[in-house]
Write a structure and sequence with these properties.
alpha+beta; 11 helices; binds FE2/S2 (inorganic) cluster; binds fe (ii) ion
């Protein structure tokens, strides 16, 4: 991998090849609760704008008098003062410096210092992006207006037979989105090592290279209509003769879907070229028409968050690099899987490269198939976008002018299987698997019911 080619690939800003791919999709930019209440009319407190930093762009979000969110460039089109300090007035926001007043779509409503007859305001616009608020998250489309796609109807966002719990968006990894997601998402081996190491005993050797005298179990990587998937059969070492079927998806441009019943979406949203914010949503289907205890627990934890890296303010910036020396011993800062991922990812390169790796020194092997496939599919999307085509997974209007069908990603963990049963799932094509999930959308009742969730 050549460093200059990789650098060109991992950039996310406007006009960069991959930045333009990201900008063809609806992306979550904030958690609704972080923007405060939805009714307007006052100019203080929850109605103040907030800053969001997405795809290398500095933006602000505010709610109008009807509660609708608006996303504008942060710096005023007049002389650049931050609209973070702007005042929300009804459906508009006023810059504190000279009082230019902007509507939610960025058009200029007033320019107090300009003679009205100049009609200067008709020639100026504050950059803005359309938003959609759904399932407790605010999404934006940051691409060319004429190419805006339909909003994708993922079942986790729209199913009515369960409840959804958004995360707080409080965790930002100090590494590039490819390190955080695309290179990592379909890498079952780091699950065994990086995540397994802190447990006792490390569960190394259940795939491909057999361990403990047990036969190796298979893993494979495939394309899907939305991106890519990894299928794994895991030997449940603690329960001899018992196997788990697992499926992880990479949904373009930047989602990890890897839980039971595809019950969770984790968006790795690029903040800039060197940091990536996790915005997550969990969906809990009703069981017998009722909210499950697991869902109630998730709601409680959302309202009473445990300390996490996202909330901690006393860690040094290079905490992940410092943690390396504690490997094998556990560490008081240890916070779980993403923590371990960041330790591995932030230490792929030195600080002066913003932790970006020296790709020319990498040696990719058979176990890097998932990374290689994701990079290949990504490179294809760069070409598609450059040639004016839609990238993978874009939803356009059907003949009747809409597309109301739910999109069901088919990730799952199904444990307690015989090898024959696990193999049956493993050998399903994506079409067969999608047909199966359409009939049995909540095949696995409750997360972790059968075997531990895989640590990818
Ligand atoms: S800088 Fe915003 S109104 Fe002048
Ligand atoms: Fe991981």
């Amino acid at each position: 991998m050549r460093n200059d080619e990789e650098l060109a690939m991992i950039q996310v800003g406007p006009g960069t090849p991959s930045g333009e791919v990201f900008r063809r999709y609806w992306l979550p930019v904030e958690v609704s609760a972080n923007l405060g209440g939805g009714s307007g009319g006052r100019h203080v407190g929850a109605l103040n704008p907030i800053r969001v930093h997405v795809l290398g762009e500095h933006l602000i979000l505010f709610r109008d008098s009807k509660g609708a969110p608006h996303l504008l460039a942060e710096h005023c089109a007049h002389r650049g003062t931050s609209l973070f300090y702007g005042r929300v007035e009804g459906d508009t926001i006023r810059c504190l410096y000279h009082g230019w007043l902007y509507a939610g779509d960025g058009s200029v409503v007033e320019q107090p210092g300009e003679p009205e007859e100049n009609r200067f305001k008709e020639r100026v616009t504050q950059p803005s992006y359309p938003t959609v608020e759904v399932a407790g998250l605010i999404f934006a489309y940051m691409g060319p207006a004429e190419l805006e796609p339909l909003f994708p109807r993922y079942h986790q966002l729209f199913s009515e037979d369960g409840i959804r719990v958004p995360g707080n968006g409080g965790y930002t990894e100090q590494c590039n989105v490819f390190q955080a997601l695309h290179d990592n998402n379909m890498d079952p081996w780091h699950g065994e090592i990086a995540h397994g190491w802190f447990r006792d005993p490390p569960q190394v050797g259940t795939m491909r290279q057999a361990g403990n005298g047990r036969p190796a179990t298979p893993v494979t990587f495939e394309r899907t209509p939305w991106g890519t998937r990894m299928k794994v059969i895991k030997d449940q070492l603690s329960k001899p003769g018992s196997y788990q079927y697992h499926e992880t998806h990479t949904v373009w441009p930047t989602q990890r879907v890897n839980q039971d019943n595809a019950g969770s979406i984790k968006w790795a949203v690029p903040v800039d070229d060197y940091s990536t914010r996790w915005i997550t949503l969990d969906f809990y289907p009703f069981v017998d028409g009722k909210i499950t205890e697991e869902a109630q627990r998730a709601i409680y934890e959302q309202n009473n968050p445990m300390p996490s890296i996202g909330l901690a303010h006393d860690l040094p910036k290079d905490w992940a690099q410092q943690v390396g020396s504690y490997w094998n011993y556990g560490h008081p800062w240890r916070q779980g899987n993403i923590w371990e991922d960041e330790v591995a990812q932030q230490t792929q390169g030195p600080e002066e490269r913003h932790y970006l790796p020296d790709w020319e020194k990498w040696h990719l092997g058979k176990s890097d198939e998932g990374l290689i496939m994701n990079r290949k599919v990504w490179a294809e999307q760069v070409i598609r976008v450059r040639e004016g085509q839609d990238p993978i997974g874009i939803v356009r209007a059907s003949k009747n002018g809409s597309d109301d069908a739910l999109i069901r990603i088919t990730s799952d963990n199904i444990g307690g299987l015989s090898l024959e049963e696990a193999t049956h799932f493993f050998e399903m094509t994506q079409e067969e698997r999608s047909a199966y999930v359409a009939e049995h959308p909540y095949h696995t009742r409750g997360r972790g019911r059968a075997g531990a969730a895989p640590m990818t």
